[in-house]
TrEMBL record:
Gene3D superfamilies: alpha/beta hydrolase (3.40.50.1820). One of its GO terms (cellular component) is chloroplast. The keyword Membrane applies. Residues 144-385 form the AB hydrolase-1 domain. Keywords: Membrane, Transmembrane, Transmembrane helix. It holds the Pfam family Abhydrolase_6. This is AB hydrolase-1 domain-containing protein. InterPro entries: AB_hydrolase_1, AB_hydrolase_fold. The chain crosses the membrane at residues 62-84.
Amino acid sequence: MPPAAAAAVAFLSPSVAVSRRALPLRRARHLAVRAVASPPASKPSKVRSPSAYLFGSKMFCMLPIAIIFSDSAVIGFITPLLYFQTGKWQWKFENQPVNIYYEEHEQETGEDVKNILMIPTISDVSTVKEWRVVAKDIVGRKGELGYRATIVDWPGLGYSDRPSLNYNADVMESFLVQLMNSPNSPVANADGELVIVGGGHAATIAVRAAGKGLIKPSVVAAVAPTWAGPLPIVFGRGSDMETRYGLLRGTLRAPAIGWMMYNVLVSNEKSIQSQYKSHVYANPENVTPDIIESRYELTKRKGARFVPAAFLTGLLDPVQSREEFLQLFAELEGDVPVLIVSTLNAPKRSKAEMEALKGAKGVTKFVEVPGALLPQEEYPLAVAEELYKFLHESFSARR
């Protein structure tokens, strides 16, 4: 049982025993070749190591400078390999503006480019960081198709604003729908070919929105998909427990005592480390001090406790049962290619829900990778490989 869940239940019932866009830079589309006088033979030029150059919020990663000598000339070229930029998109909910943080990763290429929206797993310490390596790996590959990846933090999580909204699964779904359909959003120019890649609850919320016809993804990839929050998956949804969940939720949202309770349950390094080692990561040795420190910092941001209050107590759960979970995917049968990426070492109850999707209606392909609940961060190259193969298969089939 996660430490936060155990502490929460002890609090609720002591009788329960628990053991951009700044300075835009024009990107070169053509190779620049220039003939110059031969350099002195005594001092051959060196090949420089890759460099990164920052312009405003946009960073360009460059290939090494390649110098080719001939009898009469030096031919030199610098080719942009990858670039990324950060930005804020304003989402409006109930007339309240909420700044949403996003990152874009793209390769300089003239090939056909497909757009990928990556959404982080919803958790106490959700962040775009979990998808960065996967995005860079997929975007950096050479093939018939090119890819552009946009990673977006959920409202109330990561580096997005964290207002005191009444967060639930419907609010998060509404955000995703507006993000994909608004003409000024960071994924507005996807030309109807937007891939959605999500982890945990995020994947299930995306599938639910697609099944309703509110969004129209070209491909969906659900990585370690889940549907039940920490307390409901352990203690169920009986009326007595729902009452206790409500009590805990109200306490966490309260002005003063809320921060105190949040610090006990979530915002402390020992709790975060314990959760990562017990069920978030498969290999405890992969839980580094840097990871814990960066996640701890996220819990100290203004308004950090509001979404965890909803997530911990099940308000962000998109469905209430396995039957409803399977039905969400069945709704996409024949319309959208769907990849399920399960994990070898997921917690027993979460693993059972993932396994239920094997061969289920609406699931195009089911694969397993190393990891637990956050394989995209712990084993990003394994996840990237499966995603890349599925995207290639899906888009090739349409030609």
